[in-house]
Amino acid sequence: NNIFLNVHSRILSTIDPAVQKPAEQQLLELEKADIVLYLAGLCNQIANESVPVNARLLAIIRVKNAVSSHSATVQHNLTQRWLGLDTSLRAEIRKLLLSTMATEYQQIRNVASAAVAAIATIEIPNGQWLDLIDILVNAVMDASVASFLKEASLSVIGDVCQAVSSEVMGANADKILTAIAHAMNGNDDMIKLAATRALTSCLKFCSRNFETTEERNLIMNMAISVVAASNDDVKEAGWECLGEIADLYYSLIGAYLPAIFEGSLVSISTHSAKVGMMAIEFWTIIAKREAAIKE
């Protein structure tokens, strides 16, 4: 643990590449030499609340980077490495990251959430960590849970829904939609924003829900309601969500277009330029779908 704290202290103490680069290289060599020792050391630093916040943040970022990459080839290798680790070690890391999502420090909370989503994206398609969605849904639904943890839980739900296939995630559609509906009923803009983004991400596996009038009404009412929110970020997310619905379920939304039209008039005439542009984009998607049908 002292190794990590010393290295992170050197990295954070200066912007001099001559100091930072050797420190970074030292950790890179440890990761390659002994991934178990590497992850265990990082987790010790994350769990120790006496460690400076910036050093703990760096440790969480390194854990996330140990399981996720933008390169498909690198990601394949990281996935295989992670799944090859002892199950008890992986369970301890998952538990630590979930608990870290409840921290009062937003930056740490955000990166811990991203790390949880990255691990879930590996494990859930492989039939592991299958209780995660229930854990996150329960956090959203529980009135005693702090609002920032509800927001973080919705963020993870959205990231996992975005990354994992519909075939794998489809069985969770009902419980996820229930949690999102619960979150949208509140007055907290940050929770509402995270819920709207999560709804957009899970739409791809909600076809059965859209085929049922009552459930479709619920989803559409949620999406339409947020474009009338007072917060511009929430409104933008609402229009993005409606655009995704139009793209996926065009044939099922005709009855809702008058209400959406009214909402778009308000967005175009009274809100920020970006909100107005996103309202126009919704109708552009509708026009493209109609043109494709006529062809």
Radius of gyration: 22 Å
Low-confidence stretches: none
Number of helices: 17
Query: What is the average per-residue confidence, as pLDDT, rounded to a whole number?
Result: 92
Q: In sequence order, what are the helices and strands, one letter per element?
A: HHHHHHHHHHHHHHHHH
| Backbone shape | elongated
Percentage of residues in DSSP E strands: under 5%
Helical residues, percent: over 70%
Span between termini:
64 Å
Number of strands: 0
**Content-based structural category:** mainly alpha
Largest sheet: none
Topology:
Blueprint: H1 2-13, H2 17-33, H3 35-47, H4 53-65, H5 72-83, H6 87-100, H7 106-123, H8 132-141, H9 147-163, H10 166-169, H11 173-184, H12 189-202, H13 207-211, H14 213-226, H15 232-249, H16 257-270, H17 273-294
Would you mind describing this structure in some detail?
By secondary structure, this protein is mainly α. The protein has helices at residues 2-13, 17-33, 35-47, 53-65, 72-83, 87-100, 106-123, 132-141, 147-163, 166-169, 173-184, 189-202, 207-211, 213-226, 232-249, 257-270, 273-294. Helix 15 (232-249) runs parallel beside helix 17. The longest helix is centred in the last third of the chain and has 22 residues, at 273-294. The chain is elongated, with a radius of gyration of 22 Å.
Task: Describe this protein with a few key phrases.
295 residues, mainly alpha, 17 helices
In short:
With 295 residues, this protein is mostly helical. 78% of the residues lie in helices and 0% in strands. The mean pLDDT is 92.
